[in-house]
Amino acid sequence: MKRSVRSSPCLSVWRRLRTLPGDERGASAIEFVLASLPLFFLIIATVEFALDMTVDVTVQIAAQAASRAGLTMTPPATGTRATQAHDIATKYLASWTNVGATVTVTQLDYVAFSNLGSSTYKAASGPGNCGDVEMYTIQLTMPSFTGVASWFGMPTLNFQRNYIVQNEECTS
Q1: What digits encode the pLDDT tens for the residues 70-100?
Q2: Closest CA to 110 of 155, 157, 166
Q3: pTM (two decimals)
Q4: Looking at residues 19-33, what average pLDDT do you find?
Q5: Which of 54, 59, 140, 47 is nearest to 92 (CA)?
């Protein structure tokens, strides 16, 4: 009696598996994926870093422009010198507020340069008097552009500049 030999599914899978070590089809595609993933993440991190540096330079420029408002004892036409400094900083940083950034400007009165950095002196807020030393702080807080910073535990990015000016002496 003759038996018919049928090809079983297990036998055909076994034959395919035996030929895989010599089969190099698709190897280039796999190598490309393995090489391109780290490169892709490096490009994204570079873009994030470049944008962060651009924001940092913009905060520096805003601080330089706002510091000019704090040099004079002449009160501005409307508001205070602190609101004028805030308005100037906001004007320079407006493009970043469109992407979720917040701008904060604070002003502290130290009366004299010797009080700066003193652990016992408590600075007062407000414009100060003639000849007083004022410290303005401009802070911009925003989410990262690509999310790469959150991988390293920084869900928000903080950019800050301080500038110190002395009020003009009063002439009486």
Answers
A1: 666 566 677 777 788 888 889 999 999 888 9
A2: 166
A3: 0.72
A4: 79
A5: 59
Q: Do residues 108 and 124 make contact, with C-beta atoms less than 8 angstroms apart?
A: yes
Q: How is residue 147 annotated by DSSP?
A: S
Q: Are 59 and 88 in contact (CB under 8 A)?
A: no
Contact call for residues 143 and 135 (beta carbons, < 8 A)? no
| Apex 11 CA angle, 10 and 13, nearest 5 | 65
| Structure token digits, residue 138 | 């401009």
Q: Compute how many other C-beta atoms are within 10 angstroms of the C-beta atom of residue 130.
A: 12
d(CA 164, CA 99): 29
pLDDT tens across 36-56, in order? Answer: 999 999 999 999 999 999 999
Determine the Cα–Cα distance for residues 31 and 17; give it in Å rounded to an integer.
Answer: 21
Q: Give the E-state strand segments of the chain in sequence order.
A: 102-109, 124-125, 133-143, 156-166
CA–CA dist 74, 20 (Å, integer): 84
Q: Give the type of residue at 163.
A: Y
Write out the two tokens for 136: 């303005």
Segments making up each domain of the chain, as ranges = 29-166
Single-letter code of the amino acid located at 153: G
